[in-house]
Amino acid sequence: MSISFLGVLAYILGPLIELLYKVIPNYGVVMIVFTLLIRIASFPLAIKQQKSMAKMSVFTPMINELQQKYKDDQQKQQEELLRLQQEYGYSPTAGCLPMALNMLIMFGIIEVVYRPVRYILGVPADAITT
User: Other CB atoms closer than 10 Å to residue 46's CB: what's the count?
Assistant: First the structure.
């Protein structure tokens, strides 16, 4: 039996749903509360991603200007873009990590919702016939 990375996340998130169900015995309400908890937990990542996007919108005109100015000299263009990034402390990939983490968490949630018997109730995959 192989466990994917999403399966590992599902093994973490599934017992959380089970615990919530013991407190609130209604799966509809549990899913709403679970979603709120996940959104609250991922809120700092969302803020970081929004800040990165706002920073990108400020730097886009400067980057476009450099690309137009040095459109014939690719080497000089790359040097100037690097200098701009170092001078202002900007990284164009800074918004990717929070987005990737959010996506992984959401895929883990999807795995739990699609296979609740396995991850919430703890029934092994071998015992479940598909």
Answer: 13
Q: Backbone phi, then psi, for 57, in 5-degree steps?
A: -65, -30
Spatial separation of the C-alpha atoms in residues 42 and 35, rounded to whole Å:
10
CA distances from 4 to 21, 37, 55, 101, 103 (A): 25, 24, 35, 16, 15
pLDDT, tens only, 24-79? 999 889 989 988 998 898 888 888 888 888 888 888 888 889 888 888 888 988 88
Sign for the pseudo-dihedral over CA of 6, 107, 12, 93: positive
* Helix 27-41 × helix 96-114 angle, to 10°: 160
Specify the pTM: 0.65
Tell me which DSSP letter residue 118 carries: H
